[in-house]
Design goal:
Distance between the termini: 31 Å
Order of helices and strands: HH
Largest sheet: none
Number of domains: 1
Number of helices: 2
Strand content: under 5%
Shape: rod-shaped
Length: about 120
């Protein structure tokens, strides 16, 4: 092999080695990001299940209270209280899920953003 061929082969080999390392790091970042999203989805699912269970328990208790109703006014007050509790808890849960979503999205984006910065530095 000529000197030029030897240098070109060495440079090409080095480039492929760097590309292999970068690709592995990119895949690791994608896996890390995916793991964060999966854990966030699991947490959201648990929260929603607990929320649904709480609603069921509240409605069950309200149903039991209906047995003792003696007037339309009591029925109206009980229904109004149930509606208010349900709406308040739904708003609170929606806010909590929004905060969780922002947190998970921010954490999941971090590994990918770090890799993008590293690749940009390599290209510069």
């Amino acid at each position: 092999m000529t000197d030029f061929q030897t240098k070109t082969f060495a440079q090409t080999t080095k480039l492929f080695d760097e590309l292999t390392v970068a690709t592995k790091a990119n895949m690791d970042a994608a896996v890390q990001s995916g793991t964060i999203v999966a854990k966030g989805a699991e947490e959201a699912t648990k929260r929603l299940a607990a929320f649904a269970q709480g609603l069921f328990q509240d409605q069950l208790a309200t149903g039991k209270s209906l047995m003792g109703i003696k007037s339309f006014q009591e029925l109206s007050n009980l229904q109004l209280a149930l509606a208010k509790r349900t709406l308040d808890s739904a708003i609170a849960e929606a806010n909590g899920l929004t905060e969780l979503s922002v947190k998970v999205a921010t954490e999941a984006a971090a590994p990918v953003a770090a890799r993008m910065n590293a690749v940009a530095k390599m290209a510069a």
